[in-house]
Structures are given as structure tokens and as C-alpha cells.
Amino acid sequence: KWMESEDVQKEFGVKIRHSAKELASDIVLKLRIANGTHTAVAHVMALSSLLNTDSLSNSPSSNRLLLTYLDTLFQTQILPAS
User: Fold this and answer.
1) CA-CA distances (angstroms) from residue 61 to 2, 45, 70?
2) Over the stretch 20-66, which tens digit does the pLDDT of each residue have?
3) CA dist 69 to 16, 27, 78, Å?
4) Could you count the other beta carbons within 10 Å of the beta carbon of residue 45?
5) 11 phi and psi, to 5 degrees?
6) Pick from 49, 47, 43, 41: nearest CA to 70
């Protein structure tokens, strides 16, 4: 019961779902975000001659480049449109 408190949920970044419909909505949203992020990164990776995401594990500079790109994309394009 303690996790049902809104204050506790906010503190720990948790949202309790009480129905299958709520959970299904979260799954669809997660897939949209993941697919959109991967699509955005795929173009930058291609222009940077990175062939697959495995290269990110081996290259901190490539990893930093792509995370900076995604942060900038979110701040300048996605957030203002929401």
C-alpha cells in the first residue's frame, strides 16, 4: 500500500498501473519513443560511417556525439512541438 501514495511514486519515479489498458498504453508509448529515437540515430550513424549500434560500446566519442545529438533534437524539435 505504501507505493500507492502519490508522494512516494513521485519520489521514486514510479507510476502504479491498475489495469491492463493503462499498461498497454505505456507499452505503445515506449515503442513509439524507442522507434523514433532509433530512426533519428540511424541517420546520424549512417552519416558518421557507424554501421551498427555495437560500435557505440567501443567508442565513447561516438556515443557522446549521438547522445548530444539526441539531447539537442529533443530540446530544439520535440519539446517545443509538444
Assistant:
1) 43, 13, 14
2) 998 898 888 888 888 888 888 888 888 888 888 776 677 788 888 88
3) 32, 25, 12
4) 20
5) -60, -40
6) 41
Closest CA to 70 of 48, 46, 38: 38
Helix axes 60-73, 20-47, angle to 10 degrees: 120
* Residue listed under C-alpha cell 533519428: 40
User: Which residue reads 500507492 in cell numbers?
Assistant: 4
**Cα dihedral across residues 55, 41, 34, 60: positive or negative:** positive
